[in-house]
Design brief:
The protein has 2 domains: 77 residues, 3-Layer(aba) Sandwich (Glutaredoxin), CATH 3.40.30.10; 154 residues, Glutathione S-transferase Yfyf (Class Pi), Chain A, domain 2, CATH 1.20.1050. The chain is 58% helix and 7% strand. The chain has a 4-stranded mixed sheet, covered by helices on one side. Strand 1, helix 1 and strand 2 form a beta-alpha-beta unit. Helix 1 packs antiparallel against helix 7, helix 3 packs across helix 5 and helix 7 packs across helix 9. The longest helix has 28 residues. The N and C termini lie far apart (39 Å). InterPro entries: FAX/IsoI-like (IPR026928), Glutathione-S-Trfase_C_sf (IPR036282), Glutathione_S-Trfase (IPR040079), Metaxin_GST (IPR033468), Mito_Protein_Transport_Metaxin (IPR050931), Thioredoxin-like_fold (IPR012336), Thioredoxin-like_sf (IPR036249). It comes from Bradyrhizobium pachyrhizi.
Amino acid sequence: MITLFGFGTGFGLPEISPFVTKTEVQLKMAGLDYRKEKAMPPASPKGQLPFIADDGETIADSTFIRAHIEGKYGFDFDAPLSLQARAQAWAFERMIEHHVYWALVGARWVDDTNFAKGPAHFFDGAPDHMRDKMREDAQFRVAENYLLSGLGRHGPDEDVDLAIRSLFALAVQLGDKPYLMGDAPCGTDATAFGALAGILTPFFDSPLRERTEKFDNLTAYVGRMMRQYYPEFAWAPLQQQAA
């Protein structure tokens, strides 16, 4: 059986990391049995989560895990799509992972209030005399990567403005369809769902979340995906709708 290594439940989400969420949803899409274990990034061959163990082989990075699933198990995540639609799906995936994702990082890690509420607790188990320094160093490293991503070079409003342009593109692509590319889910839906759920979780307050919530079709899409792939999880926005 495949073992998926991730962070686990937290921040009002079934999985803290949008990249682990992507892989977990793709495992569900492929109908593969797996078990999940908690891990931290240093345990991974590439220093990041997710990674999987499968018959003695370790594969790190969500995109390479997808390629492994397709190659070993013969599952085509984009089976319903034309060649042109496959290319478009890949372009949207790159936009999500290299632009939208960094906006999420800024909201969680660079915002001091959200950092203290969320990621700072990753270090709760550290020795007392090291804990504050580890938190400070981690936030600094992430903020540095945020700067290098390009979004961090702009002001707090400007970076959200840029992220919203990408989210607008996603909303236009989705339209009134059930999934990004049509009537059936594809691999990029797992990517989009992971990032959008990470932004929309009510655990964190941010201008990014507030403006994303204005895209009604994106919020409804996350609700549908949550019901389909995590039916056991009490997704707060769905509970609020039902109240």
